[in-house]
Specification:
With about 350 residues, the chain is α+β, with helices and mostly antiparallel strands. It contains 8 helices and 18 strands. The strands form 3 sheets. Strands 9, 10, 11, 12, 13, 14, 15, 16, 17 and 18 form a 10-stranded mixed beta sheet that branches. A 6-stranded mixed beta sheet has the order 7-5-4-3-1-8. It has a two-stranded parallel ribbon with strand order 2-6. This is Lipoprotein.
Length: about 350
Amino acid sequence: MDKKIGFLMVTGLSLLLAGCGNQNNSKSVSSSSSSSSLLVAKSNVKINSDNLSPQEAVSLISTYCGLRYGGNWAAMVKQAQKDGLQVNLYPSSKYQLSDGGQGVAYDVTAGGASQGLMYTVNNDNVNIYQNVKQNKKSTKLATISKAEMAEYVNKNGQGKLVNDLAAHAQVVDKRSGNNNASSSISSTENDHKYGRAGIIDVPSEMQGTWYSADNDSDSTIVFGAHSLTFAEGDDHETTQLYKQDPQFGEDEDNYTSEDVQNATKNWGKVSFYNVNGSRWLNLRGWTQSAGDGSSYTVKIETIDGKQVKVLVQAGGAENWTQAVYYQSKDMAQQNADKKFDDLHYEDDD
């Protein structure tokens, strides 16, 4: 059964870091050529630059920049270990960047407040900036590929930091027609526009990065505090999670309006329900009028005699299990398509 969450339609997130390129440091700031110390103690964890989720990508970029340039980048990374890493997406035309890339500026923050640390993507390369201000021309520090970043991070033993940051990182798309970030969860989440009645707080035990190899495909789900990102192959789709005003759905025109659909394409309406002792988070498209959406819960299963926390994705009329996600890629591969006695599958009937 296809696990892909079809209504998560944020475009451009797959442009975060595609492919590899050649490093170009001709415009680097010489005084910031390296950090004076490691960001955290060294570990043996290695980062693979292939098929990174958006959260893993921004964590890799941030860790690399903290190591390579130090200063504000390093300070931001250290703060993000406490406050959480968040990257806000804006049109690159909002800033006077020397290379606007493919039209998206990624503003990397600790906790959401901009510190002028940004990057853009141009074909296979990432253009890195610091001290970016909206009305001031900014020159890039360097252009480098994700493969080269991973090699540098692994050489310095900082792979575990990348994974730790990614576990709670958030990607927030603040692009909109008027550049006022109407889809942002940080400013107008209670404005009732298009029926938005407030953000949804994802249960803490559900937050983080989850991996599955079920149904002959490798996929990743990342739950942030108020968001969900689904990644499969090179596709990355993020949705912000909101409560929908019931009155909004009573007017069928709201669901069929093309303007509403475009404005809310990266919004998801969330509800909670209890089944067989488990509390489920149900996620549907904002203008979805039919179908049961996808539901998620965290359970404890016994694998090889050990208690393991897993994320269960279910759907359909009887909430059939569609996939099980694990907290590591290795465990997901080792338990691909494994069935558990306490879960309900469609072929059980």
